[in-house]
Design brief:
single chain; about 500 residues; mainly alpha; Serine Threonine Protein Phosphatase 5, Tetratricopeptide repeat; 28 helices
Length: about 500
């Protein structure tokens, strides 16, 4: 079951510093004014004349060229700026950034170190060094430089965010979250930070901690739509579906048009097996956004759970109408046809799903089962063999592959397959039970009982798989004795 969640975290981009300057320092210049400055600057080279630009104008020109990707012009602008304003460190810092862009990292750092000795309180020096160390994958050193900037910066939340992303690069997600929280404490209204924090809670499976965090955040910011939304996601992950629904309903109380909340409420009702209520909420999303194939798929699944296969097919087909490359839906239709005893039709749908998603072993398994059921052993065997080669941990595929081998080539070949599967799945009791079954059927009774007992030690309850395969074992006194011994230990 998919949920609408927070977006993936993005790695800090080196060029962002230039965008920040354009956004924050030159609001007084509109794009026409900057273009006019750039045109006048370029005319110096075309016409061989000299023009004077003040410091702010040069900064705007340099950043404009960099933002547009005109690096050589940006470098020329830095050169001219240093000629007209040699005492301004802001141009040395930009020179260093351009050197770093050219991957001349050590030259850039050397230049910044010189500027730092002259202006030790200049925050942009430390930010620039941090960005350069980050580009060099020296993340600990980047963090050190960012921390140096904190006493001088007017935007500590940005610095904390940069530090957080360096810890992300170090795979230290606990500290990533810590510094994102510091940033959020300064700007509690930041939706981006809320989403980032939620993302890192999610990928580190810290659901309980996330619930505690978002509840505390909501104590201070009860109208934060995204805080309620993410709280609902984590309650749902913990299978606390009623609490999840309550959280999403608070989202809708703040913004009744928030379609994602209706979608997630529907998923939570699905978790409660309240399928009709789930359908109602899926359909609510259509009032606020265009229908999506995924929503139609979930409505179809809900009707399938209710046993209404006709409506399930109707909505699956609606999904395909919107997205005919939606492999999961082709497979879902195939499963409905299996339930309707229309296996030949189901085969076509699974084959379509596999063409759309050739790496999906679940589709191949379902198709293989159909072929096995209809004694198309060669086709079934090929499919199961493909699966185990690609995904050796797929235990059921090993069992079905071995069954095809036993029917095609005899028990010895089936034993070979199971033994090969056990090399990858030593703790898979189902494989040990099946090995015992083949050994028993091939007359190796002593070995068979050795492995039956080994399998019972691993997972007694799965012995039913063996008796389903070989009900004649109930006539064996030795087997019933083992059942008595291990059932008493459960």
């Amino acid at each position: 079951m998919s949920f609408i969640t927070c977006p993936n975290s993005s790695i800090y981009i080196f060029t962002a510093i230039f965008n920040r300057y354009m956004d924050e320092e030159f609001d007084w210049l509109d794009s026409k004014e900057v273009k006019s400055l750039a045109k006048r600057f370029e005319s110096m080279f075309k016409e061989g004349v000299q023009y004077f630009f003040d410091v702010d104008e040069f900064e705007a020109i340099i950043d404009y060229y960099f933002e547009k990707g005109f690096i050589e012009l940006s470098e020329k602008a830095v050169e001219k700026a240093l000629m007209q304003h040699p005492g301004y460190s802001v141009f040395r810092i930009r020179e260093a950034r351009l050197l770093a862009y050219r991957r001349k990292f050590y030259e850039a750092l050397e230049l910044l170190n010189i500027v730092e000795m002259l202006e030790p309180t200049n925050v942009d020096i430390y930010l620039s060094k941090g960005e350069i160390y980050s580009q060099m994958n020296k993340h600990e050193m980047a963090i050190e430089e960012y921390k140096k900037s904190l006493p001088y910066t007017e935007a500590p939340e940005d610095v904390y965010t940069s530090i957080a992303y360096e810890y992300e690069n170090l795979n230290n997600y606990a500290l990533t979250i810590k510094y994102l929280k510091k940033a959020l404490a300064i700007t509690p209204e930041s939706d981006d930070l809320i989403q980032e924090i939620a993302f890192f809670f999610e990928i580190t499976s810290r659901e309980e901690e996330a619930v505690e965090f978002f509840n505390k955040l909501l104590d201070d910011n009860p109208y934060s739509k995204l805080a309620w939304f993410n709280l609902g996601i984590f309650y749902n992950t913990l299978e606390l579906y009623e609490k999840a629904i309550e959280s999403y309903e608070f989202v809708l109380a703040i913004d009744e048009s928030y379609a994602a909340a209706y979608f997630n409420i529907a998923n939570s009702y699905t978790g409660l097996k309240h399928y009709r209520t789930a359908i109602k909420h899926y359909e609510e999303t259509f009032k606020y956004e265009e229908p999506e194939a995924l929503t139609y798929q979930y409505i179809g699944e809900s009707y399938e759970h209710l046993g209404d296969l006709k409506k399930a097919l109707l909505y699956y087909n609606k999904a395909i109408h919107l997205d005919d490359k939606f492999a999961d839906v082709w497979a879902a239709i195939g499963k409905v046809f299996i339930q309707q005893n229309m296996d030949k039709t189901a085969i076509r749908y699974f084959e379509k799903a596999i063409r759309l998603q050739p790496s999906n072993n679940d589709y191949k398994f379902e198709l293989g089962v159909i072929h096995l059921k209809h004694n198309n052993l060669d086709k079934a065997e090929d499919l199961f063999e493909m699966i185990v080669k690609d995904e050796p941990g797929f235990g059921d595929a090993w069992i079905n592959f071995s069954l095809c081998k036993s029917l095609n080539d005899g028990y010895d070949r089936a034993i070979d397959v199971i033994e090969q599967g056990l090399e990858y799945n030593k703790n898979n009791a189902s494989l040990w039970y099946r090995l015992a079954g083949y050994l028993y059927k091939s007359g190796k009774v002593q070995q068979a009982f050795y492995y039956i007992e080994s399998a019972m030690k691993l997972d007694f309850d799965l012995h039913s798989e063996l008796t389903d395969f070989m009900p004649e074992l109930f006539q064996e006194s030795r087997f019933t004795e083992l059942l008595g011994i291990y059932s008493s230990q459960q």
